[in-house]
User: Fold this.
Amino acid sequence: MTAEFEGPRTAIVTGGAKRIGAEIARALAADGWHVLIHHNRSTDAAAALADEIGGSTVRAELADPGAAEAIIAALDGLPPARLLVNNASRFVLDSASDFTVAGWDAHLDINLRAPALLSQAFAARAGQGLIVNLLDAKLASPNPDFFTYTVSKMGLAGLTELTARAFAPAIRVCGIAPSVTMVSGPQSRDNFEAVHALNALGRGVDVSEIVAALRFLIATPTITGQTIVLDGGQRFLALPRDVQFLEAK
Assistant:
């Protein structure tokens, strides 16, 4: 553990009640962190996870501009905040030809504005620490499926570098960009099994690798403004569509 993370400390994980967020929360708790689990509708799952790992919960709708303030306020009485994981994400299928203003706003509000406001508030509150943004490996070789989602993640990638520059030296900011890790969006289990390992290495990304990347970022005090891409070399294939719309050859 590096000096910036010694002693009692709190990690905020947005969208931390289920799926990848919940596994991140469990891993951080196992490493000695007090975890503040952000959720919106998953109240029961968040409460059960908090009981399991000895964490805390906070409910906030990330599309609300006041969400960051509410999440930071929930740190009162907890150990000092030292880590923010912007994991929560909206992921709804649309295209460049059919996206709507409502869909655009929903993706950008949750996937970009909320992390920006929360990063700003965290940096002011924490004074030192690490912000990790969950991106998407498709940014390394973009395709136009999930159009507004992809635009929002492109923005988040830019936010990652800009805030790394702005918040240095006290706050480090990095990204983790996995390819498909769990069944998501309109994808079926059968399709997931067919395309999960559709990459140069022939090995699908596991949540444990996202956790390992996060632990590496925490343990490496000289890394900032960088994104770890976990895609098995999928970017080398230059896929024309999102992987779930393709079948393994």
Summary: The mean pLDDT is 94. The CA atoms of residues 199 and 234 lie 4 Å apart.
